[in-house]
Amino acid sequence: MLFDDYERTDSRPLLPRESLYALYNRSASEEIAASRSLIERWFRNFPDECEREELKAKFQSGESEHFYSVIFELYLASQMLERGFHLEIHPVLPNDNGRRPDFLVTDQNGEQFYIEASVVMNASGLPTNRQIEDFLLELDQRPHPNFMIGISYEGEPAVPPSAVQAANHIHRWLDNLDFEVCEKTLRTAPESLPRTEWEDRGLTIKVEALPIRQNQEDIRENRLIGMGSIQGGVLDRKTSLIRKLGKKSKRYGELDKPFIIAVQTIDLPGRIEDDNVDALYGTSTMRAWDSSVYRANDGFWQLREQQLSKRGVSGVWIVDRLNLHALESVQSMRYLCPEPTHPVPNSLLHYRHAVLNEDQVEYHGEDFI
C-alpha cells in the first residue's frame, strides 16, 4: 500500500511546509479519500512488483515532483492496460545505452513502442504567481481596434496589479501611434517596433506594438496580447515544454522502435491547446503584407539544414489538468512527428491525435486516453 491504513479525522488543508504525500496520507477529506482509493487501485494493478516498490519509495519521499511523477506513471499504465496494451516496465534497450525508458508497450497486433513519462512545471521551477496570471488574463480581454501587443514582464507582485490601469495606459499609447508607419516597420524592421513600459505594485511590463489590419478579425480573436508573445519566468509554457522534451529526446540515443514522450503539465497557465501546438510545431505567425499565417521554425520539431530535428521522437503525449477528483476533465492529446524515424503504430491512430499538414494542425481519432 502507498498510504497508511487508519481512521482519519484531520480535514485541514495543506499545512505550511507539509508535503503533498503527507497531506494525502492524513486527510479525512472526502475528495482526498476518493483520490487515495484511486491511486491505490492503480498501484495494485501496476504490472511489476519490484517496480512497485521503487515507485512507493519515490512517492513517499516528500518531494512534490516525485509525487506528481509517480501518479502520472500510474495513470499512464492504467490507461494503456485498460485498453488492452501489454506493458514491460523499464525494458533493456538493444543499443546498450545503460538507461531504460519507463515502458515498452505492445499492442494487440504485436507492434511495439516506447513511452517515457515526465512531469513539467513552470519554466522557473517556482510556484506560479497567480497575481501575474490573473493580471495577464484580464489584460488580454481588453483588445485594441488597430493593434495587438507583445509583452514581457519582470517582478513578483504580492498583490494584484491593476489590469484596467495597464490597459488604459497601453490604449492611450497605441492611439497615438501612426498605424501605417508601424505596419511598414513590421514588414521591414520588426526589431524597431515602438515599445513602452508600465509599472505597478512590483510588476514591470514591457510592451511592443503589433499592428493588425482591419480585415483580420480571425487573427485578432478579440484579444490584446498576440499569439506566442508572452515572455516571462513563470508563464512561458512553450519554453517549459521544449526544454523538458529536448532533454528527454536525447536520453536514450537512437532507438529501434517508435518513441513517445508523455508529459503531464503542472501549473502551466496559458492557452493550453494553442501553446502545446506552438511548442511542438512552431509558433503560429502572421505575415503582415498578405495576412497569411505560417508556422515559425521555433518548435520542438524544427528544420535544421533542411532536415527535421528530433525525428527519433515519434510523438508527444501531453496530459493537462490531471485532476484525480474529476478525471473526466483531463485534457489528453497525442501530437505526431511530421517525419518520424519510426511512425507510431496504427493502433494508436484510433485515439485522438494531432498531425501537421502544410502548417495547419489537423485532429483525428475519436476515443480519448
Folded structure, characterized:
The chain folds into 2 domains: 243 residues, no CATH class; 102 residues, no CATH class. It is built from 10 helices and 16 strands. Strand 2 and strand 3 form a beta hairpin. Helix 9 packs across helix 10. 32% of the residues are buried.
Provide a quick synopsis of the model.
With 369 residues, the protein is an alpha/beta fold. The chain is built from 10 helices and 16 strands. The protein has helices at 20-26, 30-45, 49-59, 64-82, 130-140, 163-175, 179-188, 217-220, 237-250, 272-281, and strands at residues 86-89, 103-106, 112-120, 147-154, 195-200, 203-211, 225-231, 259-265, 284-286, 293-295, 303-304, 307-308, 315-320, 331-336, 353-357, 360-364.
State the main characteristics.
alpha/beta; four-stranded mixed beta sheet; 31% helix; 16 strands; eight-stranded mixed beta sheet; 369 residues
